[in-house]
Amino acid sequence: MEEDALLSIGAFARRARLSQKALRLYDRQGLLPPDHVDPGTGYRYYRESRLDAARLIVRLRGLDMPLAEVGAVLSAPAPEAARLVAAYWDGVERRLAAQRELAAHLRNHLLGDEGNLDMYEIQQREVPEQLVLTEQRHITPEELPDWIHAALGRLAAVAEAHGGFFGHPFVVYHGEVTEDGDGPVEICVPVDPARAAEFPVASRIEPAHAEAYTRVTKAQVAYPQILSAYDAVYTWVEGEARTASAAPREVYFAEWSGLAPADPACDVAVPLAG
């Protein structure tokens, strides 16, 4: 069997399309240590068979993958390495989608009403009276997503044990949730009104009402991007000379975990008087 040739760091760097500085960094990080270091000169040498690993590092860094994650890919068997790359890129796409929506929100904020109305389509609908299970809390923007998920899970379990959902869950914002405000926020899960006496948690009647709403994607739900959707609905309400009759809310009609960033995720809605 032909012996695997040793290449100097310069030759290896040229063939791998890496700089010698990068190779020294990857050595310090434990990603690509040399196969031999001359004890007298300190020169580094790499076996030719290591070129595939070096070229893989180049490509992974081309995705802006952090070195720690590059190391995990290099040490994993092929199927797991492929899964790690796919998971990393899914995360990148989610971050890019969120950043895209944040940029759109900032644009709308700077343009005022003009930017909001250009981006969101406002519609109207009638909502019937509903019996809803509720859970309410004062909360920060950072805590809000996890709390919504947990509270919906708790109320959904009760609803499923007593006839299931009788409409889409929604989240009512009785006060602003921002850097300066903490709500309160109320989770509402519609249930069978005929079984009102059976529920072991707080419940109330949500009155019938008309509402103005706009549909937003999963990426647009992130804070502060979602504020643009609220601004758009309230701008429409004012422009139509209508009056809000109750606190704004988000109506969740889709299974959150299965949604891509661009998929419709919820409606931002404002109940209307009259």
Automatic annotation (TrEMBL):
Question: Which InterPro entries does the protein's record reference?
Answer: AraC_E-bd, DNA-bd_dom_put_sf, MerR-type_HTH_dom, MerR_fam, Reg_factor_effector_dom_sf
* Domain of life of the organism encoding this protein: Bacteria
Q: Where are the transmembrane segments?
A: none
**Molecular function (Gene Ontology), one example:** DNA-binding transcription factor activity
**Membrane recorded as keyword:** no
Domain (HTH merR-type): give its ranges: 6-76
In its keyword annotation, does this UniProt entry include Cell membrane?
no
Query: What keywords were assigned to this record?
Result: DNA-binding
Family matches, as PANTHER family: MERR FAMILY REGULATORY PROTEIN, REDOX-CYCLING DRUG-SENSING TRANSCRIPTIONAL ACTIVATOR SOXR
Q: What is this protein called?
A: MerR family transcriptional regulator
Organism, scientific name:
Streptomyces venezuelae
